[in-house]
Design goal:
This is Response regulator transcription factor. The chain has 10 helices and 6 strands, in the order βαβαβαβαβαβααααα. With 205 residues, it is of the alpha/beta class.
């Protein structure tokens, strides 16, 4: 069976180039090609597609874009010009099955798609070190958190912003940030992707 692949990319020239590479592969069937997550969702593509996703989009963006596409039942391959540690860890924590920078050529993208379609994950060797160097799991660290701190952490893992967390918990944004400071001090995790990974490791996400 051909691998069904969609594309979400807001740069017209790069979107066309990726679609052209996919169309030329004999084992790939090109699905919806869209400029935003909303436009892709409107195509009502059946679950099970591999989606080549840019991170910096109009509307839903970054790890939230990954989460939205994963919720639709698709496997996400991020191909982004933004390939720092925070972006890579955030995307993987949000459910991306692969990550490439836009330096990748057509063969790299096709190889990653085939790996993901086969049930594997794929991160380019130059970016894999971010995953290896990310903070090691600390057994039971969530046990040192209060119930409210655990609640804040679970909302962070869900991709909520500080203002959204404040509204959900009926507290001020300042209080949310105070909780986050305490969580960071207690766990040693500083960045939001690291906090998301902690929540996943501890079964809170």
């Amino acid at each position: 069976m051909a691998i069904r692949v969609g594309v979400i990319e807001d740069h017209p020239l790069y979107r066309y180039a990726v679609a052209n590479v996919l169309s030329g592969a004999g084992d790939i069937e090109l699905g919806p090609v869209a400029e935003s997550v909303a436009a892709f969702a409107s195509s009502q593509e059946p679950a099970g597609c591999v989606v080549v996703l840019d991170l910096k989009l109009r509307g839903v963006t970054d790890s939230q874009a990954v989460q939205e596409v994963v919720r639709m039942g698709h496997k996400v391959l991020v191909v982004s010009a933004h390939a720092g540690q925070e972006e890579v860890l955030g995307a993987v924590s949000a459910g991306a099955r692969g990550y490439l920078s836009k330096d990748a050529d057509g063969d790299d993208i096709l190889h990653a798609i085939r790996e993901i379609a086969a049930g594997n994950s794929y991160v380019s060797p130059t970016l894999a070190s971010y995953l290896l160097d990310s903070t090691r799991p600390r057994a039971g660290v969530s046990s040192v958190l209060s119930d409210r701190e655990r609640q804040v952490l679970s909302l962070v893992a869900a991709g909520e912003r500080d203002a959204d967390i404040a509204e959900a918990m009926s507290i001020s944004v300042r209080t949310v940030r105070s909780y986050l400071d305490r969580i960071r001090d207690k766990t040693g995790r500083r960045r939001r992707p690291e906090l998301t990974r902690l929540a996943i490791e501890e079964g809170m996400a």
